[in-house]
Amino acid sequence: LDAALNSVVKIFTVSSSPNYVLPWQKKPLRELTGSGFAISDRRILTNAHVVADHSYVMVRKHGSAVKFRAKVQAVGHECDLALLRVDDDDFWEGIEPLELGDIPFLQDSVATVGYPQGGDNICVTRGVVSRVEPVQYIHGGSHLIAIQIDAAVNPGNSGGPAMYNNTVVGVVFQNLSNAENVGYIIPVPVIKHFLSDVEERGRYIGFCGLGLVCQSTENKQLRDHLKMDSKKTGVLVSKVYPLTEVSNYIKKDDVLLAFDGVLIANDGSVTFRNRERISFVHLVTMKREGESAALRVLRDGKEINFNVKLAPVKPLVPNHQFERLPSYYIFAGLVFVPLTLPYLHEYGDDWYNASPRRLCDRTFSKMPKKPGEQFVIMSQVLIDDINAGYERLAELQVKQVNGEKIVNLQHLRRLVEGCKEPYIRFDLDDGRVIVLKYESAKEASLRILQNHRISSPVSTDLL
């Protein structure tokens, strides 16, 4: 582990997160630490959540008291990885880049190296590989392959390498809440996918999806109904997302039999290494944007083959909004924002139960039907004589302005500012309605902004 000790650095980040409750403000600066390690071409690999919303980043080598300024080169929030660069040549003296290995096997012993909280010096912890399967990456909300180990992963460990036979087999990134000594590391295939995006395309692109919701076909009666004989296995397509390439080929009630020639079992798994199985979604996520995939489906008892180009699938409600300020538009004290998962996170650690149930359900079930579509809500009412009585209508979706369906927040703004009628009407979810005298509302807008010390009625991205 000597090479690893010399190549692992401590990262010091100063960051400021957006305030989704008051989107015209930012939250106070906060400091956090993490770990990272040197790889080829004088780069440092770490976790995205270590440098998310960063204002300033510094790194320090093992055994040194000197901190060096670091710049964030690329960030992949879905895979929770980031690349840093240090321009100072003095920093790189004595540092050897670590080599990437492969996915370790079950029961292999790995060593995690990093700077967990509780001390300032480097720390080495050993654990055994207990499972390899897709899990939810908490930071980006995606489902990608990960390696579970029985070693403690504490704050500060994030971004450090997991070593096996003198090579990096993963990046430490999260633990299992309410469980002891259950940690997760990002495996090499995910790391290489991220690095290849940056090296070949100059920026992080993302991980592909099919845009399908599938159901297992483990029930024999269901398989008989779908005309699947005893030799056929696969999963039932229960939903096809619009705006995806696959929507031009796959239909609801098709049975997906194989992906790139790999047979899919009735439970949605495919073969993976020695007697292991993994969700077929893993094969999809390992594809690069623009690459083709061969799909074999069963439709009305007949097999059909398609070749489709894959791309990342964007949900209607974004899972994250790092490195950018929230969008907002204020008119007559009505605050309009696009719904995002970070907005719901403002309800606290128990946001799933504490946030409005209607909004929470839409977060996980809706997909865009038009390019650029957003789920726009009225987040709050800045109380004034002009809007008194409407304050209880906050946190409802805005569907129409003066009878026209809105596509996104920018569209809503154009409809409001282009209003030619004496009254302006907002149709909200659940049949609720807001009506204001347009000219009186325009006059009140400036007064409300001044009273609440808000410098602009619109976020910079909408200007």
TrEMBL record:
GO terms for biological process: proteolysis. Residues 317-461 form the Protease Do-like PDZ domain. Keywords: Hydrolase, Protease, Serine protease. The keyword RNA-binding does not apply. InterPro entries: DEGP_PDZ (IPR041517), DEGP_PDZ_sf (IPR046449), PDZ_sf (IPR036034), Peptidase_S1_PA (IPR009003), Peptidase_S1_PA_chymotrypsin (IPR043504), Peptidase_S1C (IPR001940). One of its GO terms (molecular function) is serine-type endopeptidase activity. Transmembrane segments: none annotated. Belongs to the peptidase S1C family. This is Protease Do-like PDZ domain-containing protein. It comes from Selaginella moellendorffii.
